[in-house]
């Protein structure tokens, strides 16, 4: 009996060894990289200067701390040598745009992310940071402005191709019959090839061929350019702005009020531990400034504003230079007048 039970245990153990060992768990990323980048830039541009002014740092308990960002390792691996060169610190490959480097991270280094339990997806706070508004206006990403060598070259090429190619004076001369013909309200393409009812007359056909021989190439290029231009897709930025206008018309004050309350709670919990390093007055002032930088916009009147006008610093160096120059000028005038009167008194 004991031998039989022992044999069954051995058989069960052998059967378990045939079961394959479970492989490593796959960590699937559902966090938007673009929205996380916008939130990261808002923190850097809006909150970090306020914290530096109070001489404190963002606590680790704050979900916006750089060490808790799920894309922190990849963001730290971005090396920018110049405006048009981004290098991956993991493998050393270089790219001429940051978005290509982000695609490289998704394809080659997708496991180089923050897998800690307290890792935070910054894109989850896009409703607080107004990612859609900032992305549409291009305030943080620099949209609409050429910041790389390739973008500058691309804009120049687009501007060059947008101009109609001008031929020589002899080729660009229009026939007399084209000048006398009245123009309709919105002709589709007056010089484009079309069917003529007088095409059966060989004499008139030969005359027209001689008259149009000079501007045939120019007409063809213009017609082709119109065809290509009409087939281009609409500007995505203008589409985003139109969508924002539609959402602005359908604004829900109660929803934005709930988002604003959540924003204030996030700010308070983010800097709660700084109360140990600041006085009550300083902590209250810090909290108000951080809320004014982000939560202040969460209303139907201010949600679609681009940015609050920054207070211009008073030009103290310029005022000091003007005062110094004025003092020197008065001294020189007094000295010259004193010498002149002394000279006249002497003689």
From TrEMBL:
Region (Disordered): 166-238
Stretches assigned to the C2H2-type domain: 86-114
GO MF annotation terms: zinc ion binding
Signal sequence residues: 1-25
InterPro entries: Znf_C2H2_type
TM helices/strands, residue ranges: 316-341
Record's protein name: C2H2-type domain-containing protein
């Amino acid at each position: 009996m004991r031998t039989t039970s022992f044999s069954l245990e051995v058989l069960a153990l052998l059967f378990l060894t045939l079961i394959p060992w479970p492989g490593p768990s796959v960590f699937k990323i559902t966090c938007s990289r673009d929205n996380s980048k916008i939130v990261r830039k808002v923190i850097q541009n809006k909150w970090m200067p306020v914290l530096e002014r109070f001489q404190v740092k963002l606590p680790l308990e704050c979900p916006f701390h750089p060490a808790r960002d799920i894309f922190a390792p990849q963001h730290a691996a971005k090396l920018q040598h110049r405006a048009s060169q981004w290098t991956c610190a993991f493998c050393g490959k270089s790219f001429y745009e940051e978005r290509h480097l982000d695609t490289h991270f998704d394809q080659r280094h997708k496991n180089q992310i923050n897998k800690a339990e307290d890792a935070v997806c910054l894109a989850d706070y896009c409703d607080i940071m107004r990612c859609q508004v900032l992305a549409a206006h291009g305030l943080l990403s620099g949209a609409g402005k050429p910041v790389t060598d390739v973008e500058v070259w691309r804009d120049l090429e687009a501007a060059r191709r947008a101009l109609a190619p001008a031929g020589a004076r002899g080729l660009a001369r229009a026939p007399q019959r084209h000048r006398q013909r009245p123009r309709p309200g919105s002709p589709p393409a007056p010089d484009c090839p079309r069917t003529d009812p007088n095409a059966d007359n060989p004499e008139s056909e030969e005359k027209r061929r001689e008259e149009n021989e000079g501007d045939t190439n120019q007409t063809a290029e213009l017609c082709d350019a119109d065809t290509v231009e009409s087939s281009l897709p609409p500007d995505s930025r203008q589409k985003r702005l139109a969508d924002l206008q539609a959402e602005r018309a359908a604004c829900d004050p109660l929803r934005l009020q709930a988002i604003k309350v959540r924003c204030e709670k996030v700010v308070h919990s983010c800097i709660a531990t700084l109360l140990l390093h600041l006085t009550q007055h300083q902590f209250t002032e810090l909290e108000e400034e951080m809320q004014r930088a982000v939560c202040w916009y969460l209303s139907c009147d201010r949600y679609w504003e681009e940015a609050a006008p920054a207070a211009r610093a008073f030009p103290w160096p310029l005022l000091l230079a003007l005062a110094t120059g004025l003092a020197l000028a008065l001294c020189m005038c007094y000295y010259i007048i004193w010498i002149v009167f002394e000279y006249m008194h002497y003689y």
